[in-house]
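Attaching the record inline, Q. Sequence:
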Amino acid sequence: MSNPSELPEGWAWATLDEIADSSLGKMLDRKKGGDHPVPYLRNVNVQWGRIDTEDVLTMSIPPEQQEFFRIRHGDLLVCEGGEVGRCAVFEGDDGRYLAFQKALHRVRPLGGVSSSYLRYYLEHLNVTGGFGRFTTGSTIKHLPQQQLKRLPVRVPPLDEQRRIVARLEEQLSRLDAALASVCATKRKSARLLQSIYDDAASGRVADAWRDISNDFEAEGLGNGWVWRMPSDLTDGAKENIVIGPFGSNLKVSDYEDAGVPLVFVRNVRSGDFASTRYVSQRKAEELKSHSVTTGDLLITKMGEPPGDAAAYREAEDGIVTADCIRLRPSARWDVNYLVVAVNSTLVRRQIEAATRGVAQRKVSLARFREGVKIPVPPESLQSRVMREVNDRVTKVRRLQEALDRAETWAEALRRSLLAEAFAGRLVSQDPTDEPASTLLARIRAEREETGAIKPRRRGPRRTPAQRKRRPDAAAAPDAPPPPQADGRALVTATQPTLDLEIPS
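Structure, as predicted:
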């Protein structure tokens, strides 16, 4: 197996600083207004391979600084924080002035180096974890300017860069078109699933059943369906509809690595109750009024919007947390139907209308009890309704699973194409291409001539004895680290990634 640090014939290693000028944008002035307002791009304007110039704000930049912060055609804009390295090439050529904020790096390649090549190379680093040792921060990652300059880049001959970009754009455009079709179908499948819930909750699911009278119509319901208050679906006891304990009764310090599972909003939304947080048996006994058991209906009381519903089907009882409503239906009602009904548009709209708050929108337990009604069929029809619903839902779920697999496959193929490109295997090498080493030498000479960098100067030769006595010199603080002999390769879906260490 070849060493991943080895380069194809004619390629060379360089740091980003050796092949491009880069700078951070203008720090945003906290003061409102200003005498010299100009439009500028933010982190949010830069997406992968695309710059959104529709939602552009303005800030004041003095005239003497405006030229420095101007974005020009062919500049590569790179996100400094958030999704580190997300980038796109600015293709503007209409003369419109645009500046850029400090949340962005502007990378301006030198000597004809391809901006698009660097754009795809940075995407490759992103999907393979190549930015990892260059970022700072734990919760929110950042890519400081000095670290960006140190990024090792595999540089092919200039003509090969262009061939790589052309092939990537050809292949990825087809992949993106296929992925767009998958995403559109996923949206349609979600709407189809919602229509199934709505048909079941409104009684329309029974339109084709000849033995059901269609004479009854009440508030959008048909075929004998009626509205019920949440308490009508229980045995009547107040403790059958509860929310989780208040913060003072259940704190993070009460969490354990094992014990009685806790149920959070995320569990209800996903329908997956595998827990990573627990409380002790003793604490669970204190909170027994907030317990959840198999057959209970769970509804989220916060979110955008709240109102997601799921049935708890775990063998082990749990404890609901503060932002969940637990409804324990009586034996008369099928909890699976109640899940469908609460997830229907008829009920979700009521929950949304009962929601309050700005920073955190929630529906209180009192408003849920008093302001929400749930449509139900005649008890004798519940099982028949659910057979029809389950048959339809199963077909849609199978389609959605196939679409999820297609998305995963597309992401893997994209990673594979990028890995092949920067391993030198996506396009053929042409021995007549000017080697990258010559390109790099020319860039350096041009920068030395303009005074952008100082010429290299060789020190006096030392004797072997002098070299032996001298301790190892420390690496320059901005020098790329040497390759690790036992460095493990990051893995893409089908191809090994490239070692980003510059060999010494």
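The chain has three domains: 12-157+434-454, 159-207+380-420, 226-376. The domain at 226-376 is CATH 3.90.220.20 (Adenine-n6-DNA-methyltransferase TaqI; Chain A, domain 2).

More tomorrow.
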